[in-house]
Amino acid sequence: MAEEIKHVKETRFDPIASKAERYEKGASIRKKTPLSEHKEWSSFKNRKDPVAILIQTSIGRVESLIPIRYSRMMESPFSFFRGAAAIMAADLAHTPVSGINLQLCGDCHLMNFGGFATPERKLVFDINDFDETFPGPWEWDIKRLAASFVIAGRWRKFSNKNCKEFAWHVADSYKRHMLDYSKLSALQIWYADIDLAELIELGHDKDIKEFNQKRIKKASEYTAHEKEFAKMTYFDGARARIKDEPPLIFHPSGDLEKMIANEGEIIHNRYLESLSDDKQVLLSRYMLHDLAIKVVGVGSVGTLCGISLLMSATGEPIFLQFKEARKSVLEENVKIKGKYSHQGERIVMGQKLMQSASDMFLGWTNDSKDKFFYIRQLRDAKVKPVLEIMKPKNMAEYAKACGWALARAHARSGDPSLLSGYIGETNEFANAISEFALLYADQNEEDYNKMLKAIKQQRLPIASEI
């Protein structure tokens, strides 16, 4: 039961021990925290009210955008789950752990995975959202990922049997690939990536395979900045400007407009200082032309996010996306002190540690009042999952891919030999995680209904998007 969770001493990486010794160390931890314990979930005494957590996490967000946040979350239990990372983080703090910590994604759900281009223009499959990244128990990422597949499967009206199988495949794929990574050197793990074209070729559904191959071809040919420029901008004299499309894209006004007018150049220059010298030289060829607020995602709605347009002297554009960097929802739920006081730096460094290749313009900045941001390219050949067209067999294949990508990320920041030793080679771990995912999906639905009730009682504001 959640209220009976025992405190487990953290197990640290031992650089002197052999792979075999570290594997055996992992296996020995099972005696303290058996794999079967990971199936457990039930609500517990003094569990935090999910609506109160949502209200708390809305503090400090742009007031006018908060209704859009709740409007998006009320669409389904799945959209609610995407915006409820803080609720699950508080719950995971009451679940069994092995004591093995590493860098976590923090908001590890199936929509935060996908394809994108590396700086070398190779298309890879990986995790692509790290707003909540923080060190913590490795189990938390895989439990959130597995639960997301059950919740998404129910949203697609798949059977409970199918949904449980999706979660099982997440954990089984994680187990198998972690074992593979445990046999590699640290450098080999660092070089490892998941080729998107090869991953799609492994699929068994001809129609989905052809659909995704066309998307890859389009993404490879897609000159993102030029295409976005034609679609999103107009000229005001000699200056290029971003088109307003309220309420989702708009230019700031009031105090925010004054802040940007006074500090925009300082914020941009601080961002440049976070980049390596070669990227600073590259971006010195461009000038900042315009900046607009852009509402993104579900969990990020209401935080200060937007796009900036840079132009070279000869008219070539670059769009950068800036996102406000707040404290990770994991921070107050783990007994680990964060290394970075700058929240933008925390996200960037966590992303670089976990991703096989990160955006070449990834950097961080802040204003004079220490509102933190991180910055990256707006789009770079991104290929997102399209859940609406997936059949159960496609969802199962996608679950395997996400489990693989998470294993690769954890193998970089943790000890794959220790993890593999703990998980073992039986089905016990996958069985436990899939059981947990079903139980937590029930909890998520219950919390979703509490949110709907709060909206009906006007405790949470909603608005229709245009």
Automatic annotation (TrEMBL):
InterPro entries: DUF2252
Name of protein: DUF2252 domain-containing protein
Pfam families for this protein: DUF2252
Source species, domain of life: Bacteria
Organism: Flavobacterium potami
